[in-house]
Task: structure prediction
Amino acid sequence: MIGKFKKSFLVGGLLAIFFLQAVASMVQKSPTADEAAHHIAPGYSFLKTRDFRLNSTGPPLMEELAALPLLFMNDLRLPLEHSSWDRIQRTEFGWQFLYVDNKDKVDRIVFWSRIPIVLTGVFLGFLVFLWSNRLYGFNAGVFALFLYAFSPTVLAHTRLVTMDIGASCFIFLAIFCFYLYCRNPSFANLFLSGIAFGLAQLSKYTAVYLYLVYLVFFFCIWFLSKKDFMADYKVIRNIRKLLLSIIFIFLIGNLVVFCGYFFELKPLLLNDIDVGEKIAFFETFITKVFGNDSDVLKEKFVDFALNQPVPFSTYIMGFLGASNQTLVENKFSSMIFGNYSSDGWWYYYFIVFLLKTSFSVLILLIVAILFNRGLSRNRMSELFITVPVILLMMFTMFSVLQLGVRYILPIYPFLFVYISKIVNVNVPDSKGFTQRRLVYLLILLLAFCHLFSSVKAFPHYLPYFNILGGGANNGYKCLTRVNTDLGQDLKGLANYLAENNISRVKLSYWGFASPEIYNITKLPIKEIEKEIPENDVYAISVHHIDEFEWAEKFKPRCKIGYSLFVYDFRYWYK
Result:
C-alpha cells in the first residue's frame, strides 16, 4: 500500500514537473500573434479601466487573470491617450502597449502574464487526477495525471495567454461539479456547480455548448433513472428537482458572468468593434423575420442598440461577433495535406485530433474502448466524461473556423480520465501465460513512448505532430499552419543569428512580435527574390513558405522551432 504522504508526493511531483516543463519552455518563446495582438494589453486595460471596448474574440476571464501580475508592475504605461483606444483598434493598441510604451519590459510582461495561465493548467491537472481517482482509484488517477502532464498538445497551450487552457479547465470543472451534485445533491454542490458553470462561460464562448450538455445529462438521467447502475445517484429521486437545479445552475452562472464584466451596463453597440457589420447583420436578420416592410423596426432596434444600456452587452455582442459566419467567413482558409479550402471539411478537427494527439494516447484510447465492458464501474458516471467529448466534436463539424488543435483542447482532460481506467484491466489467464501481464506491459510501453514524445518535443510543443503526421518536421504540410506556427520563434532566430555571427537576415515573418526587440536586423524581401534568391540569409515562416518558389528545392540550413526556416545562400553563390 502506498502511504498518504507518498501519494501526495507522487501527485505533487507530477504537477511540479508539468509546471516546470511549461515555464522552462515558455521563456524560450517570443509572444505569439494572439498574445501580443489580442490578449495581454486588453486584459490589462480591463483591470485598469473596467472598460471592455477592446474585448477580444472571447470573454475576459483568462485575460483578466493573465493581467493580475501586471498590476504589481508599477512602471507599466497603458496608452489610453493613443488614438487606438478611442478608435477601438485592439491590434494597434496591443502593439503600442508592448513594443512602443513598454518595449524595454516585453519579456517581463509576457513572462508574468503567462504564469497565471500555467497555474490554471496545473489546477486542471489536479482536477484530472481527482476525477479519475474518484472513478477508478488512485493508480488510475496518477496515470491520468501522467498522460496530462506529458501531453505536448496540452503543454503547448498551457504556456500562452489565450483562452484555451482556461476553457478546458473550467468546462471540466463545471461538469465535474455537476457530476458531484448528481451523486450528492447538496446545496453546496449545487452552488459550486453554478459558479463553475459561470467561470466556464467567462473563459471562452465554446462553453456555451454546456447548456446543451446539461440538458443531455438531464434526459440521460431521466431515461436511465430506473436502471440498477443509477443507484448511486441520489438526484434521481426527484427528476423535477433536477430540472430546477439545472435552471438554478444557469442562473448562478449568468450572475458570475455579470460579475466578470464588473456588472457592466451599456448599449449593445457602444464602444464596440465592427459596429457597421453588426448593424448590417441585425438589419438582415429583421428583414428575414419580418419582411421587407420593416424599416421602422430596424430603425428602432438600431436606436436601442446604440443608446439603451443593457446587462451582458459586451458578452452578447462578442458572442455574435465570434459565432456569426458573415463576420468570419473567408478570413481563414483550411488546409489538409496540402489541399486548401475556404469552405473547409466537416471532418477537419477529427484529422487534427488524429495527427496532433500523442500516438500512444490514441492506442491507449482504443484499448480503453475495447476493454470498456470489463473496466467500467458505472456506465452513468462515464456518460459525464464521454458526452462532453462527443458533443464538442459534433459541434466542430459545423465550425466555420478550421484552425488549430486548441479549438478541441477541452476534450483532452476527459479523454485522459476515460483512458486511465485501463490500469484496472482484468484479463484471465489462458494457455499458460498471463494475458493480463501482457496488457500491463503494453500499457507500460505506451506510457514510456508518451513520455519520450513529450521529452523529444521540448521546448517546441506547438508544432508537435505524432508519427501519423510525420512528426514536427512534416507537420506544416499536413494541416492549417497555425498548428505549427503562431509567430513564437523570434527569440530562437535571434539566438541562431548571434551564434552564427549573422548580422542581418531577410525575414518573412508571420506574427506580431517586433524583430527589433530581439536585435534582429531585418531586410526587406523583393518580389523577384521569391523566384530567385540573392546571396543572403533568409528566414521564412512556414505560413509564407509556399510563396517562395525555391523553398522546396533547397534544404533549410536550420529549422528554428520548426516554424522558421533559415536558408543561407551566401556560400551557394560562391
Q: What stands out?
A: The chain is about 55% helix and 5% strand.
